[in-house]
């Protein structure tokens, strides 16, 4: 089975799979209650990949993970206070905006206790949104307050997780 990372570098990621029920590239708050797990940026390609756990979303019934791919990134900003341990960062708001020359996205996160103004913002020329399944991704998420770091990592999607694509969209 193909991993998330392999899928994102494959040509068939652009195959027509049908648009997701909630399209994060076109619909405000489509990512509400998803949790950001990881993002990585390749400066040689000007590409940003953002990985989400979708177990808690009300907007997406199909798929337990989602990935945003931003191509030809022209700006990127992460804002969050320092933390002492892993925390579950739920999306409180997501705001896509398409202009004549750029796609802009701002994603705000809230902690389980209070909204601390955490956010990820970026601008790019084109973007992709992929929704799919990973094995075990429908089980309850790890307990960030009681589980060990090893147990938490094992219970979350990563770039090396086997991935079955379900829906995709592009701008």
How would you explain this protein's 3D organization?
The protein is mostly beta strands and 171 residues long. The protein has one domain (4-170). Helix content is 6%, strand content 39%. It is built from two helices and nine strands; from the N terminus they run αββββββββαβ. It has helices at 4-8, 149-154, and strands spanning 35-42, 47-53, 65-71, 75-79, 89-98, 103-110, 118-124, 126-133, 164-170. The radius of gyration is 15 Å and the shape is globular. The two termini are 27 Å apart. The mean pLDDT is 91.
Q: Name the structural class.
A: mainly beta
Low-confidence stretches: none
User: Could you spell the SSE succession in H and E letters?
Assistant: HEEEEEEEEHE
Q: Whole-number radius of gyration?
A: 15 Å
Q: Which strand-content bin applies to the residues?
A: 35-45%
The helical percent reads under 10%
**Average pLDDT over all residues:** 91
- Tally of separate domains: 1
> What separation lies between the terminal Cα atoms?
27 Å
Number of helices: 2
How many runs of DSSP E, i.e. beta strands? 9
The best one-word shape is globular
Query: Quick one: biggest sheet?
Result: 9 strands, antiparallel
Q: Which strand order do you get reading across the main beta sheet?
A: 4-7-6-5-1-2-3-8-9
